[in-house]
Design goal:
Length: 159
C-alpha cells in the first residue's frame, strides 16, 4: 500500500489543489492532504477552517483524508509510513522552488520521494494569494475556487 502526503497551506483551497488531489487519487492507495500550520504565516483561515473545507471538498474520494500538522512534513510522512510527497507545479518558478525543497526533504528523510504533478493549463493562474486579494475587492473567484470556499471567503472577508 503506497501512501502519499499532499502538504500545503491551502489558504484557501482552490480548484488547482482539487485537480492535483483528484489525479493523485488514481495513482496512490492513500493520500493524506496535510494542512501545514506555520505560525510565521498570517493565514486568512485557521487550520481548523482549512481542514474542514478540504474535508468537505474531498469527501467523494475514498482514499483521501485531511489532517493538519505543525511539524516538518517529512516527519509527518515518516510517522505515517508515507512513501511520497505530492507537489503541484504551475510553472518553472514553482518547479525551481519545489525542486530545491525536494532535495532538502530527501536529505531529511531518504525514505520519501517527491512527486511533481503539473497542473492542468486552466489552473496556471490560480494562486491562493491572488484569490484572497481578488475576493477582498469583491471580485468573482467562482472559476478558481469551489462554491463552499467562495462562500467562506465572502463570510471571512466581510468581517
Amino acid at each position: 500500500m503506497v501512501t502519499a502526503v499532499f502538504p500545503g497551506s491551502f489558504d484557501p483551497p482552490t480548484y488547482g489543489h482539487l485537480n492535483v488531489i483528484e489525479r493523485a487519487s488514481a495513482l496512490f492507495d492513500s493520500i493524506d492532504v496535510l494542512v501545514s500550520v506555520n505560525p510565521g504565516k498570517n493565514s486568512l483561515f485557521s487550520a481548523e477552517e482549512r481542514v474542514g473545507l478540504l474535508a468537505e471538498l474531498t469527501k467523494g474520494f475514498k482514499n483521501v483524508s485531511v489532517h493538519s500538522c505543525d511539524t516538518l512534513v517529512v516527519e509527518y510522512a515518516k510517522k505515517i509510513g508515507a512513501k511520497a510527497l505530492l507537489r503541484g507545479i504551475r510553472n518553472a518558478n514553482d518547479f525551481s522552488y519545489e525542486f530545491d525543497l525536494a532535495l532538502v526533504n530527501r536529505s531529511l528523510n531518504d525514505g520519501v520521494e517527491t512527486v511533481f504533478i503539473p497542473t492542468e493549463p486552466r489552473f496556471f493562474s490560480v494562486r491562493s494569494s491572488a484569490i484572497k486579494e481578488l475576493a477582498g475587492y469583491g471580485g468573482n473567484v467562482s472559476k478558481m475556487v469551489p462554491p463552499a470556499v467562495e462562500e467562506a471567503l465572502r463570510r471571512k472577508l466581510a468581517n
